[in-house]
Amino acid sequence: MTEVPDFDPSPDAYVYAELADHVAARIASGHLPSGAKLPGERELAETYGVAVGTARRATKELRDRELVKTLPGKGTFVV
């Protein structure tokens, strides 16, 4: 497993995109293996120190990239 740098958003970029990039890097490094459940949006927001809407948009971005899949009532999982 390779190390993923700490989350440090740039003031020149959208935080949701940088959050999605950070989670994607954790997936690529193996820290979040296939089938792993992502924290819920509220927990993700708290962990990263962002608004719930930002965490929600980052999760949508990860779904758009086909890195995760959300199953209603169950959670969001790494593909």
Describe this structure in words.
The protein has 79 residues and is mostly helical. 46% of the residues lie in helices and 10% in strands. The protein has three helices and two strands. The chain has helices spanning 15-29, 41-48, 52-64, and strands spanning 68-71, 75-78. The chain has a two-stranded antiparallel ribbon. α1 crosses α3 (52-64) and α2 packs across α3. It is globular. The two termini are 18 Å apart. The model has no long low-confidence stretch (mean pLDDT 96).
Write the layout of secondary structure elements.
Blueprint: H1 15-29, H2 41-48, H3 52-64, E1 68-71, E2 75-78
Antiparallel strand pairs: 1-2
Name its key features.
79 residues, mainly alpha, two-stranded antiparallel sheet, 3 helices, 2 strands, 46% helix
